[in-house]
């Protein structure tokens, strides 16, 4: 009877095999194991972080800010359909900003005061131009050809998009707030910030739609009288001009 001398390497190999089996059972694979996939962690913030972010966002979007006032001004001046198209355009601009912040571009822009100042004055000038146009055309009946071809809706969408993109406060807000809710252990920071930004847009869209529908309905009642229609159109134009002046007069974009 021959006895084989125990090889210390055998114990090491057995331990390695047990470790590999345990990893496969738990879903965690060794990066050095050839042909074995590693489990990827979805870039989703924790439930607690999402709830805290949504609560803060709710307070932020419920209180009427520049975007809400802009939407109300469009609804009062042009009607419900234009306001809804404005909401879609404005949220599209916010989505672009969310994507930029998630990729780190927003933080770069935030460091350059000149860039934020240029955005601030560009947005303010655009609001003033829209307000002057609304004042000049107050009381005008909608062009049936614009409604038939969808030009009015596309125009309102573009206007909302420009206002959303030239809002430096949105860049500063997202660049400062989104990183606070990122958990490094739950996937990429860019993915988590993008998820939070999409949740913000979803909640903001519901609030903005409520303002647009409410102001648009009020405008429909005023439109039954030419005098009331001129008054509401002029009020909407003055509101936009006042918003533009207010944005330009702020000392800092944040």
TrEMBL record:
Q: Which InterPro entries match?
A: LeuE-type (IPR001123)
Record carries keyword Amino-acid biosynthesis: no
For the region Disordered, what residue ranges are annotated?
Answer: 1-36
Named from the GO MF annotations, one term is: amino acid transmembrane transporter activity
Lineage at the top is: Bacteria, Bacillati, Actinomycetota, Actinomycetes, Pseudonocardiales
According to the record, the segments passing through the membrane are: 48-72, 84-106, 112-132, 161-182, 194-217, 229-249
**What is its subcellular localisation?**
Cell membrane
Origin, by domain of life? Answer: Bacteria
Q: How does it sit in the membrane?
A: Multi-pass membrane protein
Protein name stated in the entry: Homoserine/homoserine lactone efflux protein
| Keywords from the UniProt entry | Cell membrane, Membrane, Transmembrane, Transmembrane helix
> Looking at the UniProt record for this protein, which Gene Ontology cellular component terms does it annotate, in alphabetical order?
plasma membrane
Indicate yes or no for the key word Glycoprotein.
Answer: no
The UniProt regions of compositional bias labelled Basic and acidic residues, in chain numbering, are: 1-18
